[in-house]
Automatic annotation (TrEMBL):
PANTHER family: HYDROXYMETHYLGLUTARYL-COA LYASE. Gene3D superfamilies: Aldolase class I. Belongs to the HMG-CoA lyase family. Its EC number is 4.1.3.4. It comes from Metapseudomonas lalkuanensis. It catalyses: (3S)-3-hydroxy-3-methylglutaryl-CoA = acetoacetate + acetyl-CoA. One of its GO terms (biological process) is ketone body biosynthetic process. One of its GO terms (molecular function) is hydroxymethylglutaryl-CoA lyase activity. CDD domains: DRE_TIM_HMGL. Residues 7-274 form the Pyruvate carboxyltransferase domain. Keywords: Lyase, Metal-binding. This is hydroxymethylglutaryl-CoA lyase. InterPro entries: Aldolase_TIM, HMG_CoA_lyase_AS, HMGL, PYR_CT.
């Protein structure tokens, strides 16, 4: 398998990164983050979620954020939609791409979206139909692909079955989520080989949380398996409210450093990206979670 020459990064910081924050974050700060990211050259930003505000209060202002961002031509601005109600709210906000999210483990499905895996897939059918009618693209997520915080090990075949269903119902791409960041490079390659028998590799993406510090290694392993789309979060922000202790996604800066070193094209400006991460970290009063960003900032002095 050839390593891809180009990689598409899906920036999930404004959604996956901020959803777990307990402190209020203003709409203006969220809008600034999205605009800073697109200014740095990110071509795909997950801006927010149209989920129940009782479940994820931080995403309640997503409609306002969508109303105020400066939409750049050629950039995809996406949102999570767990059901038809969320999809309709997304459409009202002018969203052109949504993501539905399922899990490969039953317990996580119940904790995250209050239904079984089978029920969640049934719930997505009307979303897919409505999306088709509105000309809206749908991305699919599978969570807990390399382990579940409640059920432990998750067989790769179980992940493949859920990914195949999402693909068959019309998701143009399926992102494989290592929600708790326990995966290792060997397990990642095994997972891709198993899921790759059911969904073409060029329709798969990797979504690695960095809880155990393995995300960059897992991305490298995925590149060797021909995967060319990765989700990442500027400054390594985030976590999932329903996966206690899980840290943020792999930092976008760390992935970019890996890809730049391998001569893989992304179109992203590292300096502007680091600035975007620093600005939101200052808003949150947090240390930057990207080791690459910290090293670059130390060099700048
Ligand atoms: P439920 O309580 O079973 O829903 O929640 P329900 O249909 O019974 O409705 C209950 C109430 O919620 C009703 O309001 C609905 O109107 C409202 P009430 O009558 O009580 O006032 N409601 C909504 N409100 C706004 N937007 C909606 C919506 N739907 C219903 N779309 C539900 C089910 C799916 C809604 C809930 O469990 C939920 O919102 N879950 C979201 C959880 C979430 O966002 N988790 C984080 C994102 S996933 C993630 O981080 C993983 C990922 O990064 C990949 C990885 O790392 O693995 C993607
Ligand atoms: Mg995630």
């Amino acid at each position: 398998m050839n390593v891809p020459k180009k990689v598409r990064l899906v920036e999930v910081g404004p959604r996956d990164g901020l959803q777990n924050e307990k402190q209020p974050i203003s709409v203006a700060d969220k809008v600034r983050l999205v605009d800073d990211l697109t200014a740095a050259g990110l071509g795909y930003v997950e801006v927010g979620s149209f989920v129940s505000p009782k479940w994820v209060p931080q995403m309640a202002g997503s409609a306002e954020v969508f109303a105020q961002i400066q939409r750049k031509a050629g950039v995809t601005y996406a949102a999570l939609a767990p059901n038809l109600k969320g999809f309709e709210a997304a459409v009202e906000s002018g969203v052109k791409e949504v993501a539905v999210f399922a899990a490969a483990s039953e317990s996580f499905s119940q904790k995250n979206i209050n239904c079984s895996i089978a029920e969640s897939l049934e719930r997505f059918v009307p979303v897919m139909e409505a999306a088709k009618a509105h000309g809206i693209s749908v991305r699919g997520y599978v969570s807990c692909v390399l382990g579940c915080p409640y059920d432990g090990d998750v067989p790769a075949e179980q992940v493949a079955a859920v990914a195949a269903e999402l693909y068959a119902m019309g998701c143009y791409e399926v992102s494989l989520g290592d929600t708790i960041g326990t995966g290792t490079a060997g397990a990642t390659r095994h997972l891709i080989n198993v899921v790759g028998t059911r969904v073409p590799r060029d329709k798969l993406a990797g979504h690695f949380h960095d809880t155990f510090g393995q995300a960059v290694a897992n991305i490298h392993a995925s590149l060797l398996e021909g995967i060319a789309v990765f989700d990442s979060s500027v400054a390594g922000l985030g976590g999932c409210p329903y996966a206690k202790g899980a840290t943020g996604n792999v930092a976008t800066e760390d992935v970019l450093y890996l890809l730049n070193g391998m001569g893989i094209e992304t179109g992203i400006d590292m300096g502007k990206l680091v600035d975007a991460g620093q600005r939101i970290c200052a808003v949150l009063g947090k240390e930057n979670g990207s080791r690459v960003a910290r090293a670059i900032l130390a060099k700048r002095g």
